[in-house]
Specification:
- By secondary structure, this protein is mostly helical.
- The chain has one domain: Orthogonal Bundle (Arc Repressor Mutant, subunit A), CATH 1.10.10.
- Helices cover about 75% and strands about 0% of the residues.
- The chain is built from four helices and no strands.
Length: about 70
């Protein structure tokens, strides 16, 4: 799946520019810290499919900014 290997400065800049939803921000932050999809699913009480969709949506927004 998508990796989010950004520096703190790059990450902060993306957050300002990409208009992520609150849900995307939660998933993006957890993914950035290396949490698994299964872990995020349990912690956020969402299906793994929903987590994957949120990651993909965030990734698309990041690509538009690059």
């Amino acid at each position: 799946m998508f990796r989010f290997d950004f520096t703190k400065k790059e990450y902060d800049c993306l957050i300002e520019r990409c208009c992520f939803t609150d849900e995307e921000l939660k998933v993006l932050d957890m993914r950035r810290r290396g949490k698994s999809i299964c872990y995020m699913s349990i912690k956020l009480n969402l299906s793994e499919r929903t987590i994957k969709r949120r990651i993909k949506s965030a990734y698309k927004k990041i690509l538009k900014e690059m």
